[in-house]
Structure formats: structure tokens, C-alpha cells
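Database export, one record per block. Field names are fixed; values are copied verbatim from the stored entry.
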Amino acid sequence: MIRWVNFLHIYQPPVQTAYWVRRIANECYLPLFRLLAETPDVRVTVNISGVLLEHFEALEINEVFELIDRLRVNQNVEFTGSAAYHPILPLLPVEECVRQIALNEHILEKTAGIKKPDGFFLPEMCYSPAVSGILEKMGYKWVILDEIACPGKTCGIIRGTNVRVILRNRAVSNALNTYALHLEDLVKNFGKMELWISATDGEIYGHHKKNFWLIFKDLQGSGVRTMTVSEFLAEGGSEEPVAARACSWASTEEELNQGIHYPRWYNQHNELHLLQWAIAVMAFKIGRIEESQKAREFLDKAVFSCQYYWANPGILWYPGMVLKGLKLWERFFRACQAMDDFTPIAGLLKRKLAEHGA
């Protein structure tokens, strides 16, 4: 019997258009949740970012909330906490981390009736030891990271805390992201393993891979037993203390050896990243004294991760997303009457984008 602990993360950035939210909902979120609601034997752990729930609410995609209610009754889907607008938490001041996590808890309960979860998903699995301390103080019991955080481990307790950690298997996860079309593809390649721990973006189940949510229909009689993360940990996962290192789910050993912990989102050798984060640091300083609620809302949303991910020329390059992020930052600085601080560095970032072909 193979035990499959499968973690799905679903998210859309605050700047995403209504067209794409509706399209992805129809291709992925709705059919996936319908199938899970109709097959309570399929057990998964799901993170829904607060910003995505706000998109559903604003666009009145109400079936999502009805399906979440059914899943909560069935108890076959475990939901987790996260950061509301998908920032890279290790790169934020402590007070901003706490705010993003608390905002996410508020949105989950207000929109979907999901009360404070036990588990936590760090956006892009970007982890640092300081963040684990924040999670412990905020009452989270476990976090999921990539295996590169603790090579050779599947789970444990983060040293110095009471927070348990489960490590995703990168090979199984990458198979789901790429070549696997049916459950038999996983069995063929990983059938000798007794435990699969996978974690991927949930959008692969129907949006990136057409009708891929049907993989869960293959489970009956397959010899594969699905479990939530909490069920797996409750069955006796290791409680050995482990020293998790700062990393992301995209990190490589070479990058970590160079001290580049979050390469897609903050690479010290990427001049665009340096300018983007200089804007963020300036905004955090202003945000500490800013009393405008509207400005505060702009700041909460402006930290979303996609603007950094797509600022990697020649690798991950979509300057349009960088400019959308810059527009959010502009709205914050304008609301704070601090455009004199923002305009010079924003202009420099735009010129650098143009030099790279934006």
C-alpha cells in the first residue's frame, strides 16, 4: 500500500484580471472541488490564499464557497493557513509577516467559514528560521517545506520550536507538474516507494494540464491511499528535531551554497530585484507611521510575489507583471503623499526594464 500525502496550493495575484480568475475557476477550481466533494475517500490538504477567496467573492463565484462548505462537512479536505497576499515572508519585517498571516486567517473565516487551521503554507515555500518562530507564536502546529530544507528527511520538529515540518518529495511533485497524466504514470515511476509526499500549485489540476483533476478518479482499487498532512503526522511521523535551512521550493544546492536562498524572488545579482526590494523597504518604513486605511490596504497587496518571480530576464520574464506591481506601489506612495520618494527609483526600475527589452 502506497500512502500519498498530496498538498495543493491555489492562488491568484491581487492584480489578476476577472477574465483569468473566471477561466481558471472553470477549468480547475470548480471541477476539482466538485470531484473532491463527490468522492470523500479522496483526502488532500489544500491551501487557498486569502486573495483568491477575495477574487471569488468580488466576482460572485459562489459555487466555490458552497463546495468548500461540503468539503468541510465531508472532512476529506484539510485547509491551511498562509499569507493573505502571497508575499515572500522571510523578506518582510516581522510585523508585516504577522499582519499578512492574521489577515489571511480573517479572510478564510469571513468568506469561507474556515477557522484557524493547524497547518501552514509559506508562499513559494520560502522559509527562514525566523519565520518558524513567528508561526509558533501564532499557534501553527506544522509547516510544509521542500525536501531541500532538510535533505534525507520526510518530517520532524523544527529545532528550537514546537512546529512540526513535513518535506515534499521533489521528484514526485515534479512528475505531477510535468509528465504525469494518469495515476499509473506515478505508480510506474514511484511504485516502489511506500510514501509519496507531493506539493504543487493546484492549478495543474485542470488549468495547466487539461482535466488533470480526473487523476483522483483513478485511485479506487489502485493500492494508493490518500491522506491529509495532519493524518500522516498523527499516524506517527518522526518527531526528531531537524535544522531546516533557508530555502524555497525552487532552490538548488548551488544557489544555497552561494547564499541565494530565494533565487526567483530575491537574487542579489539581479539588479531588478534590488530595485524592487528597495521600493518595498522604503514603503515598510512609511507604513509604520502611515494612518490612512486605504494606503495600508495598498501596502498589504503590493507585496505579492509574482512581480519578483517574473523579473528574471532570460529565465522567467514577464515585465507586464513587474509593471503591475509597480502600479500598486505607486498607489501606496500616492496615498501617503510620498511620491517624491517613489518617483526616482520607480523611474530607474522602468529604465532598467526597458534595457532588458520590456
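Remark 1: The chain is about 45% helix and 15% strand.
Remark 2: The two ends are 51 Å apart (CA to CA).
End of record.
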